[in-house]
Amino acid sequence: MPIDRFYATGKRKNAIARVWLAPGSGTVTVNKRRNLQEYFARETLRIIAEQALALTNSHGKFDIYILASGGGVSGQAGAVRHGIAKALESYDQNLRPVLKKAGLLTRDSREKERKKYGQKGARARFQYSKR
After folding, report:
1. What totals of helices (H) and strands (E) does the chain contain, helices first?
2. pTM (2 decimals)?
3. How far apart are CA 14 and CA 35, in angstroms?
4. What are the residues facing 8 on neighbouring strands?
5. DSSP conformational letter for 70
6. pLDDT digits (tens), the chain, 131 positions
7. Coil, strand or helix at 45
8. 27: Cβ–Cβ under 8 A, 6 or more apart, which residues?
9. How many other CB atoms are found less than 10 A from the CB of residue 98?
10. 25, containing H or E segment
11. Which residues on adjacent β-strands are paired with residue 19?
């Protein structure tokens, strides 16, 4: 019995993207009703989100269904990229070396550093007054 859909979860910062990949015409649906161009208004975010597809020459070969939540638009674009890369890997193991070399299968573990007490921010201090 062949598998008709491939699922993966992508994460970046506080954003999570659940990605389903199915062979099809190339439509990308984000959060049940919007296409990728609507959801990611900035071109750079669209380029980031579709990086795995461009690298593997998979544009127009898959219908992609994405549920993105949490974080901001930049984090969500990174999460979508991670999810699509993982779903492509589950579709075809031969794509793994290409995706791995580009660093798309690795979860970007950088998180926001917490604010410390007695300070203005994570690293920033209140201004020191000598007199």
Report:
1. 5, 5
2. 0.90
3. 22
4. 19
5. S
6. 567 899 999 999 999 999 999 999 999 999 999 999 999 999 999 999 999 999 999 999 999 999 999 999 999 999 999 999 999 999 999 999 999 999 999 999 999 999 999 999 999 999 999 98
7. helix
8. 35, 63, 64
9. 16
10. none
11. 8, 66
Class of the CATH domain delimited by 6-101: alpha beta
Furthest-apart CA atoms within the chain: distance in Å: 78
DSSP class of 93: G
The residue type of 130 is: K
Q: What are phi and psi of 30, to 5 degrees?
A: -115, 130
Domain boundaries, the chain: 6-101
Tokens of 117: 């007490």
- Find how far residue 110's CA is from the centre of its chain: 14
